[in-house]
Design a protein that fits this description.
The complex is a heterodimer of chains A (86) and B (263). Chain A is mainly alpha-helical and 86 residues long. Helix content of chain A is 78%, strand content 0%. Chain A has one domain (2-82). Chain A has helices at 2-17, 20-33, 38-51, 63-85. Chain B is α+β, with helices and mostly antiparallel strands. Helix content of chain B is 38%, strand content 29%. Classes of the chains: A mainly alpha (86), B alpha+beta (263).
Chain lengths: 86, 263
């Protein structure tokens, strides 16, 4: 749990101070490392809200990060479950 | 056969519920404009104070780091800046006379120039943002409206307002991918459309017969024009009737603190 809180704090700091690609990379790594890392998807939603435009056709601007983070989250949790079963 | 224990079943159920909630929410945001606006407004209102605080922290950090910088490099920088200052002072003398002449001509042609601006501080900029967008701390409360032109240093057009909230506004930069801007190549005396490429770059296609040199000024169209940039990379091909000019915005967004929104 401590590790997860530290990861959350790091992600917030990256979001506030670092270029977006560092934040995106960290979010993907944390999604893969932790179980059900919803914080990553929530942050993607915040980033998209902050920077997207309504004129963007793909999910009104929520497609780039929010949709991709949801897909990564779902696929990773599915894969983890399968690997555990095997 | 795999046995599913009750606690695992609960976990799975919880996960599925969360995915369903998020999917419904995202789908609503994707299809319904009002839901999107509500979500964006709520998130921006909550997060913009955090952003303002982060800018404050970044500025403080810069001023602390400045104290510990190498003395020699500081001296070199100072000499360089002194030289630049002399150059700029000379340019100002020339500019003053041109400005005066321009004003006289405008009065003569009954086109007096009355520009007023709303000042805004940048709270987020590329590369923090994945798109060529900046967020400023002036919103509808300060009188900001959609479509207002964003100007840096009083003479450089950097973009226009695309979304306005109570205390914040989003500005789409002229270099936003696919963004079109009407411009005039000052030396070539030809108007064209600049196409944003992202990352601060803009592309223009003009006939190869027009002679353009690297460093030529590129301005916006209109009586009271703004500077867009200077020709940087010129790609001309003998087989192609058009030449491609790529230029960058003449401002460093990382150093830019405040911008003006033309009323």
């Amino acid at each position: 749990m401590k590790k997860r809180i530290l990861a959350d704090m790091l992600l917030v700091c990256l979001f506030l101070f670092a270029p977006w690609y560092f934040t995106a990379t960290a979010a993907i790594i944390f999604i893969l490392l932790f179980e059900n890392y919803w914080e990553g998807a929530a942050l993607a939603l915040i980033v998209d809200s902050f920077y997207s435009l309504p004129e963007i056709s793909l999910w009104r601007g929520f497609g780039f990060l929010t949709l991709s983070s949801l897909i990564i989250l779902y696929v990773s949790s599915f894969a983890k479950r399968k690997i555990k079963v095997l | 056969m795999t046995k599913i224990y009750p606690q695992n079943r609960d976990k799975r159920k919880k996960r599925k519920t969360w995915i369903l909630i998020f999917a419904i929410f995202a789908l609503l945001g994707a299809t319904n404009g009002n839901v999107r606006n509500f979500t964006v407004k709520a998130i921006i209102n909550v997060t913009s104070p955090v952003f303002k605080f982060s800018r404050f922290v970044a500025e403080k950090k810069d001023s602390i780091v400045f104290l510990f910088r190498n003395k020699q490099s500081m001296g070199e920088e100072l000499n360089y800046l002194r030289e630049i200052n002399i150059e700029l002072e000379n340019e100002i003398i020339l500019l003053e006379s041109t400005k005066k002449e321009n004003e006289e001509l405008k009065i003569l042609l009954s086109r007096p120039e009355k520009k007023s601006y709303i000042l805004g501080s940048i709270i987020s900029r590329p590369p923090q943002s994945p798109y060529d967008m900046i967020v400023i701390d002036a919103g509808s409360d300060a009188g900001v409206k959609n479509g207002m032109r964003a100007v840096a240093y009083g003479s450089v057009l950097i973009g226009h307002v695309v979304e306005v909230f109570t205390n914040t506004s989003k500005i789409k930069l002229v270099s936003y991918p696919g963004e079109e801007t009407n411009l005039i190549m000052e030396n070539g005396k030809i108007s064209a459309i600049g196409l944003g490429l992202g990352g601060g770059n803009i592309e223009v296609k003009i006939p190869s017969s027009v002679k353009i040199n690297s460093g030529d000024k590129i301005n916006t169209e209109g009586t009271s024009h703004y500077l867009l940039g200077t020709a940087d990379k010129i790609e001309a091909d003998a087989l192609n009737p058009f030449q491609k000019i790529i230029f960058r915005m003449p401002v460093n967004l990382n150093e830019l603190q405040k911008i003006g929104l033309e009323k």
